[in-house]
Design goal:
Keywords: Coiled coil, Signal. It comes from Paenibacillus nicotianae. Strand 11 and strand 12 form a beta hairpin. It is built from four helices and 21 strands. Helix 2 packs antiparallel against helix 3. The strands form three sheets. Strands 1, 2, 15, 16, 19, 20 and 21 form a seven-stranded antiparallel sheet that branches. Strands 3-10-13-12-11-14 form a six-stranded antiparallel β-barrel. The chain is rod-shaped and about 210 Å long.
């Protein structure tokens, strides 16, 4: 509806409309008698998808810290929000009863150790007794061999005595007598001659004495030979026979004694072996008792170590559910003074945070692990990363959760705060125009471009949409000014005059992505 009239004064107004922390621009218009339109300067923009998602920040990891033994809380040192390091003491339990139990356990261990030492000593004694008995068996065997040799010799001697002299022995004895008789006869003749000569003074007294001594020796030799001959001819006497028999009997007694000693020593070995077996059984029993006592003691020592509650990891105390005087059980706060059964402490890592974003199941295919997501908290914007896509759909909402992790080195973002999120679909940039700026009622879509104050119909090629904006693939250039509001009221060639700065001008904060201006369209 164009009307040309030279009498109409065209009021030109310029209002710069800028946005803060949002991709949706806000504008302010000066109302005139003409239709108001708004245009924007074409710029390159990141092709992002803003889903207007939100989620609650949580610690990257939460570690419950629980007591591992029951008792009464005597001190609590941790507070919610406090930064703690791994191993820091958070609370302690009363140890009086455990210390008494430990004293009893120490006594039981000492008694068991004494029993074990006694059993070991008994084993050593039994082993020594066995060695002594074995040595006795060895000695008795030697005695038996000696006695057996003696009895053989005694029997040979007895047999010789009982059998008498042999013919050869008798002949030898007779020859000895004959030789002795001949020597005696010669000595007697010589002694008689020497005596006669000495009486006549023909021999010295010494020579005569020598002859007499030789006669005496010959006489003795003859008598010995005659006695041996007599014994040989007569045989052994009764006393000799008795002595030979006694020697045999004595040797037999030696054998019997040696055998008895061997049997006794063997019995000693068997008794010692039984003592060894009994001592070994006693050692095993004492060792089992000692091991049980040590295990019982170690359990108490372990329980004592559990009376000090320490942080399992470094982080921030997120929850505290325990107080002094409270009775706790192993594994929980016990429901004492705090009146609950939750973990005494929960420690979280807050140098990294995570947030679950509910994604419509129809859009989940556009999300991938590793993609970057923009998270904003008030005026602070950070880049997070998709670390997990949950496999199940929420039955009540029909959405699927995407877990996003964001670094929080200063720990100025806190668990429990709500953040807004948008995801960058691509790293590319392009020209984006609001949907209302593109007119597509005909065969080809077009926009109105400001060319030296004239509205110029410009055909464009439209691509994908991003957050209610079209990607313009062709038809526009960086720096072009395009009408974004009121384009449906324009015709090709309408005048767009930039007003001077006077009257009431309303402005908004400037954004970093686009500037929008409002002008008046007229003939």
């Amino acid at each position: 509806m164009k009307q040309k009239s030279s009498s109409i004064l065209i009021a030109l107004l310029l209002v710069v409309s800028l946005t803060a922390c949002s991709t949706e621009p806000s504008t302010a218009a000066v109302q005139t008698t003409s239709n108001n339109v708004t245009f924007t300067t074409v710029k390159q923009q990141a092709l992002t998808v803003n889903y207007n998602l939100s989620g609650t920040l949580t610690a990257y990891s939460e570690v419950p810290v629980t007591f591992r033994t029951a008792g009464t809380v005597t001190s609590v040192k941790g507070e919610i929000g406090q930064q703690v390091t791994k191993g820091a003491v958070l609370a302690t339990l009363d140890t009086v009863d455990l210390n008494l139990s430990l004293a009893d356990a120490n006594q039981s261990v000492a008694a068991a150790q004494a029993d074990l030492s006694s059993a070991s000593a008994s084993l050593k004694d039994a082993q020594a007794s066995k060695q002594n008995s074995l040595a006795t068996v060895s000695s008795a065997n030697a005695q038996l061999e000696s006695a057996q040799a003696k009895i053989e010799s005694a029997r040979v001697s007895e047999q010789s005595v009982l059998s008498g002299a042999r013919s050869q022995e008798k002949a030898q004895a007779q020859n000895a007598v004959n030789k002795a008789q001949t020597a005696y006869n010669q000595a007697k003749v010589e002694a008689t001659r020497s005596q006669t000569l000495a009486s006549n003074g023909l021999l010295t007294q010494q020579e005569n004495e020598q002859a007499q001594t030789a006669l005496a020796d010959a006489t003795d030799t003859l008598k010995d030979a005659q006695a041996k001959l007599s014994l040989t001819l007569e045989g052994a006497s009764a006393s000799e026979r008795a002595n030979a028999a006694s020697t045999v009997k004595e040797a037999q007694t030696g054998i019997a004694n040696a055998r008895a000693t061997i049997e006794q020593a063997r019995a000693g070995v068997a008794q010692a072996e039984a003592g060894i077996a009994q001592s070994q059984a006693g050692i095993e029993k004492a060792k089992a008792s000692y091991d049980q006592a040590v295990i019982a003691k170690n359990k108490i020592v372990l329980s004592l170590s559990y009376t000090t509650l320490k942080a399992q990891s470094s982080g921030v105390i997120l929850e505290k559910n325990v107080s002094v005087g409270q009775t706790v059980s192993a594994g929980s706060s016990g429901g004492g003074a705090m009146g609950g059964s939750s973990d005494p402490f929960v420690i979280g890592e807050t140098t990294r945070l995570k947030v679950l974003l509910p994604i419509a199941d129809s859009e989940i295919s556009q999300w991938k692990v590793g993609q970057q997501v923009s998270l904003s908290l008030y005026n602070d914007v950070r880049t997070g990363k998709v670390t997990k896509l949950y496999p199940q759909t929420n039955e009540s909402t029909g959405s699927i959760n995407a877990e996003v992790t964001v670094n929080n080195p200063k720990q100025d973002w806190k668990p429990g705060q709500v953040v807004k999120a948008s995801r960058q679909a691509t790293t590319q940039k392009g020209i984006l125009l609001p949907v209302e700026a593109v007119i597509s009622t005909g065969d080809k879509p077009y926009v109105f471009r400001n060319n030296k104050g004239k509205a110029v119909q410009t055909f464009v090629t439209v691509g994908e949409s991003y957050n209610n904006q079209y990607l313009i693939k062709s038809g526009l250039h960086i720096g072009d000014q395009v009408v974004v509001q009121g384009a449906d009221r324009l015709f090709n060639g309408d005048t767009l005059t930039t007003p001077t700065k006077k009257g009431n001008l309303n402005t908004t904060n400037r954004t970093t992505t686009e500037d929008k201006q409002e002008v008046t369209a007229h003939d």
